[in-house]
Amino acid sequence: MLPVSPLVLNLAVALGIGLLIGIDRERRKGTGPGRAAAGIRTFTLTSLCGAVAVIAGGDLLLAVVTVGVFALAALAYWRTLERDPGLTTEVALVATVLLGGLAVHEPTFAAALGVIVAGLLTARTVIHGFVNSVLTEEEVRDGLIFAGATLVVLPLLPDKAIGPYGALNPHTIWIVVVLVMAVSAVGYIAVRIVGARFGLPLAGLASGFVSSVATIGAMGARAAKDRDLLGAAVAGAVLSTVATFVQLALLIGATDTDTLMALSVPIACGGGAAILYGGVFTALALRHKVEHRDSPGRAFSVRSALLFAALLSAILVASAALDDWFGNAGLLAATSLAGLADTHSAAVSVASLVASSKLDANAAIVPILAAVTTNTLTKMVFAVTAGGTAFAVRVIPGLILVLAAAWAGARFLG
Questions:
Q1: Sign (positive/negative) of CA torsion 108, 112, 118, 122?
Q2: Is residue 219 part of a domain?
Q3: What secondary structure does DSSP assign to 186-222, as a single string?
Q4: Strand pairing partners for 162?
Q5: What is the end-to-end Cα distance of the chain in Å, rounded?
Q6: Do 123 and 33 belong to one domain?
Q7: 229 partner at 20 to 30 Å CA-CA among 245, 258, 291, 330?
Q8: Which of 395, 379, 375, 393 is nearest to 233 (CA)?
Q9: Which candidate, 63, 35, 46, 343, places its Cα nearest to that of 213?
Q10: Where is 3: in which H helix or E strand?
Q11: What is the C-alpha to C-alpha distance for residues 387 and 220, in angstroms, rounded to an integer?
C-alpha cells in the first residue's frame, strides 16, 4: 500500500472545512440578481487557497492571500450593503482562508474549529431566537457578573494564607463565592428548562456533588426570594445531602477499602434518610403548581454569595482559633474542627491513617461521623441565614434526621 503524504491529508482537511462551511452559506445564498456573492464553491476554493498558500510560501503568503480575500469580502459587502447589512458571510470567508492555512500545521485543531464555525452559522435561527426571545437583560447582566468574578477577580486574588491564624485564603474563599453563584445559576437554569417543581430538586441533587453547603445556601436564597418555591427549594437542599454521602463513599473507598466497609452502614443509612426526606418534599413540590412567570428574574444573588463566603470565613477563623488555644487534642477534635468547613477532607485524612496502619478501621467511624456532624451544623447555619425561618424549619429537621440515621447505623455496628 502506497504511503499517503501528510500534505494530501492536510489538503483534505482544508477541503472538508471549505465544504462544511460552504454548504450552509450556499443554502442561505439565495437566487437571482440579489443572491449573495459566496457559496459552496467559493468557500471551498478559499479554504484550499489558504492551505496552498502555507504550503507554497509559508505564513507570509497566507497573510497576502488573507488580505486579498478580505478585500474581496469588503467589496462584496459594499455591493450588498443596502439590501443586507449583515457581515456574517464576509467574516466567515476570511475565517475560512485562515482555517485552510491552519489545516497545514494543525489539521485536527483546524477541523474542530471548522465544525464550530459551521455550527454557529447553521444555528443562526436558534441563536437569534434564544438571544432575542428567551434571554433577558437580567440574565445577560448576571452572566457578565459571573464571568467577571471568575475570569477577572479570581486570578488576581493571592493564593496564600493570610489573616488571623493564617486561616483565610482569599483565592479559596472567592472560589466559594463563584461556587455559590454557579450552584444558584444551575438551579435557575433547571427551573427555566423544566419548571420549578422539577428543576430545583434535580439541581439540588446535582449541585450537591459540588458543594452541599453551597447548595443549601443557594436554595435558601431562592426560597427567601419566592415563597412559592419553598417546597422545591427544601427538596433540593435536602437532596444535596445525598451527594455528600455518595462522595464520602467514593473518596473513602478510593483511599482505603477497609474504612469504607466499616462505614458502609452509616453511609447507607444517612444517604437513605436524605433520599426519603428529600423525596417527601419533592413529591409535595410536584403537587404544588407554580404559576408561570413571564419575567424569570435573576440567576443568582451576589449578596447571598458574599454573605456565604463571609460566614465560611468566620467559621475558618474560629476553627483555627480553637486549634491554637487548645491544641490538637486528638483525632476526634481535629476532624470535628475540619468538618466545620469540609467533611470530605477530614474523612480522607482519617482513611489515610487507616491505610497507613496507624488507625484501626473501626476506630475511624466516630471521627468521620464527627466531621459529618459539625459539617451539618454549618449547613444549619446557612439554612437559617440564607433562607429564613420558613426554609430553616423544614430543612433542619431533615438534616437532623439524616445525621441521626448515620449515627444509628454506627451504633448498629457497635
A1: positive
A2: yes
A3: HHHHHHHHH-HHHHHHHHHHHHTTT-HHHHHHHHHHH
A4: 168
A5: 71
A6: yes
A7: 245
A8: 395
A9: 343
A10: none
A11: 4
**289 pLDDT exceeds 60?**
no
CA gyration radius, the chain: 29
What secondary structure letter does DSSP report for 11?
A: H
Q: How far apart are CA 105 and CA 112, in angstroms?
A: 14
Q: What span, in angstroms and rounded, lies between the C-alpha atoms of 414 and 409?
A: 9
For 108-147, the DSSP string reads HHHHHHHHHHHHHHHTHHHHHHIIIII--HHHHHHHHHHH
Q: Which are the contacts of 93, defined by CB distance < 8 A and separation ≥ 6? A: 38, 42, 43, 46, 69, 72, 73
Per-residue confidence (pLDDT) for residue 407, from 0 to 100: 92
Q: Interhelix angle for 257-287 vs 343-355, to 10°?
A: 160
* Spatial separation of the C-alpha atoms in residues 60 and 92, rounded to whole Å: 21
Q: 168 - beta bridge partners? A: 162
Cell numbers placing 80: 450588498
Number of domains in the chain: 2
Per the listing, cell 469540609 goes with 342
pTM above 0.85, yes or no: no
H or E element that contains 236? helix 230-255
* C-alpha cell recorded at residue 14: 482544508
Per-residue pLDDT, averaged over 197-212, amounts to: 72
CA dist., res. 268 & res. 266, Å (int): 5
Looking at the structure, tell me whether residues 219 and 108 fall in a common domain.
no
The set of cell numbers assigned to 371 is 466531621
> Does 345 lie in the same domain as 222?
yes
* Helices 365-413 & 343-355 angle (0-180, nearest 10): 80
Closest listed residue to residue 62, CA positions, set 113, 105, 121, 23: 105
Kindly state whether residues 65 and 191 are assigned to the same domain.
Answer: no
Query: Can you list the alpha helix ranges (DSSP code H) found in 288-341?
Result: 302-326, 331-339
Q: Do 103 and 10 form a contact (C-beta atoms < 8 A)?
A: yes
